[in-house]
Amino acid sequence: MSTQLEHILTPDFLEILKKGQSFFQSFDYFRILVHYDGDGTSSAIILTRLMQRYNKKFHLGFIRELSEDGFSKRYLEERSIPTIFVDCGSDQLRFLPEDTSNVMVLDHHFYSTSPEWAININARDYNIDGTREACGATMAFIFAAFIDDKNAEDLLPFMISGCISDKQDMGGFRGVNKKLIEVYGKNIEKKRGLNLHGESVRDSIVFSLDPFFKDLSGSNNSVNTLLNDLGIDGDKKLNALTGEETRRLGLYLSYKLASQGCQSEAMSYLETDEYYFENGFASNELSLIIDANGKNGENATPVEYFLGNNSLKNALIENKKIYQTRLIDYVMRSYKSMEIEKNLQFFYAPGSEMAGAISGILMLYLADQTRPIIGFNAGETFTLISSRGTRKMVEKGLNLSKVMKECTAEVGGSGGGHDIAAGGSIPRGTERQFIEIADKMIGKQLEDIEKY
Q1: Residue 359 CB neighbours (<10 A)
Q2: Residue 152 backbone class (left: φ over 0; alpha: ψ -120 to 50; beta: rest)
Q3: Do residues 155 and 50 make contact, with C-beta atoms less than 8 angstroms apart?
Q4: Which of 22, 148, 352, 362 is 20 to 30 A from 261, comparing alpha carbons?
Q5: In contact, 90 and 120? CB cutoff 8 Å
Q6: DSSP 364
Q7: Residue 228 CA: distances (Å) to CA of 234, 237, 245
Q8: 62 — phi, psi (to 5°)?
C-alpha cells in the first residue's frame, strides 16, 4: 500500500482503494474496458503496464458508445471475465444485469446511483472535482500508486497526458492532480513556454490545433508569410528561437487569438508548462500523440508502443500528422456550416468520431462565446452527440451533464458527462427534437445568456 497517498487522499477514499487492491489480487486474468478518447487511452496505458508488471493476463477493449445498448452489449460479450472499467462506468453500471459481479470502476464523471455489487471508485464521491481536479488517467494512476508507490514514477507521464487531453491543465493543474504531480514528479524537468509543438516553428503553427489559429492552422503559405514578416526562420526548431524571437511570435499569436474573439480561457492556453519525460516525449506532445492515434481508430498503437513495441514509433507520429491535417479541415468545414439557435449552436461533424474534438476547438477558438456548442455524429441508427461550453458559462449555471442526461432521455437516448463537456446518443432522426428541448433547458440554466 502507498504511504505517499495517505497524505493526499481521505481515509474513505483509501478504504475503497483497499477493496480495489483486493479485487486486483484475487484474479490472474482481467478485461480492461476504457473510453476511446485521449484520457481513456492514457488510462489504458497505465493499467496495461500495471498488469504487465504483476504478470496478470489481460484483454483490452475500447468503448465508443456509452448508451445503454452500446455499453451493456460491450460488457456482455465476455461477462465471465473480471472487468475493470476506466474513464467510464459509474453512470453506466445501471445498464448491466442485476446478477453482474466481479466489476470495478475507476471514473470521474457525474453519476446518480451505484449498485452494491460493483466496486465503484469515483473521484466525485470524495469531494474531488472530476471536471478540473481528476480525470480517468488520474484514477488509474492513483490505483497503481496505491498498490505500490514504485509504480508511480514511470506511469506519471500518462496521468499527465490524460489530464491534458481532458483540459485539466488549463490555467495550471489543481487539486489532486497538482498534489500527485508535486509528490511523484519531483525529478521531472518542467519549463514554461509557448504551447506549440512540431519539428520546426513552421510546422508547429501549421499543425496547431490547441490553440487553433484561424487562417494560420492548416495554411503553409499564411504561416510562411507571417514568419517572414516577423523575421523568424520557419525551419528553426522551437527551442532554437532566441528570447526576442519567442517574444515577437508570442505577442502576434496572442493578438491573433484576441482578434478571433477568444476569451481568457482560450488565451491562457497559448502558454503552458511542459514536462519532459524519460520516455523521450514532452507532456503536451505525448497527450496529442495518444489522443490523435485514438481518434484515428488506432488506440492500440500507443498502448502497444508503451508496452515495449518500439517499432511502432513512426506509426505513432504518422497517425498524429494525419489526425491534425484532417481535424483542421473538419473544424473549418463545421465552422462554416454551424447553425445558431437562441441558446445554443450546433453542427454535423464531417467525419466519424470527430464531433467532440471539433466542438472543443470551435468553442474555445472560433465560435460565438455566448452559446454552448453541440456536435452531431450521425450513424445508421443512432446519432452520437458531443457538447462543449466554457468555464464562464458553467459559472453562470450551465451544466451540460444534466442537459445530455435529461434531454437525450426525452427522445429515447442516453447521455451524461461533465458540466463543461458532455455527450450522449439519440435515435437517428430525433436531432431536431433534441435541439429544441436542449435549447430550452440551456436557456433556463443560463438566464439571459445574451447579456454576457
Answers
A1: 29
A2: alpha
A3: yes
A4: 352
A5: yes
A6: I
A7: 8, 16, 12
A8: -115, 135
Three-class DSSP category at 255: helix
Chain segment 183-211, per-residue pLDDT in tens: 999 999 998 989 998 889 999 999 999 99
Which stretch of 21-25, 79-83, 194-198, 396-400 has the lowest confidence by average pLDDT? 194-198
Domain termination site, one of 241, 258, 276:
276
What's the pLDDT at 394?
93
Same domain, 123 and 224: no
- Looking at the DSSP assignment, which residues form a beta bridge with residue 235? none
Same domain as 196, residue 181: no
Of the residues 228, 244, 276, which one is the last residue of a structural domain? 276
| Contact between residue 96 and residue 15 where contact means Cβ atoms under 8 Å apart | no
Give all strands (DSSP E) within 77-236, no chain letters. Answer: 83-86, 103-107, 119-122, 189-194
At residue 47, the pLDDT reads 98
210 in Cβ contact with 197 (< 8 Å): no
Task: Provide the CB-side half-sphere exposure for 238 (13 A, CA).
Answer: 16
Residues β-bridged to residue 273: 192
Q: Which amino acid is at 419?
A: D
Q: How confident is the model at residue 86 (pLDDT cuts 50, 70, 90)?
A: very high
- Residue partners of 49: CB distance under 8 A and separation at least 6: 154, 155, 306, 307
Measure the CA angle with vertex 418, ends 149 and 68; round to 5°: 95
Task: Please report where in the chains the cell 467525419 appears, as a residue.
Answer: 351
> Nearest Cα to 291, choosing from 360, 373, 242?
360
For the stretch 254-302, pLDDT in tens is 999 999 999 888 898 899 889 999 888 999 999 999 999 988 889 999 9
- Structural domain span for residue 146: 5-188
User: What is the model's pLDDT at position 67?
Assistant: 77
- SS3 category, 180: helix
Q: Residue for cell digits 465560435?
A: 367
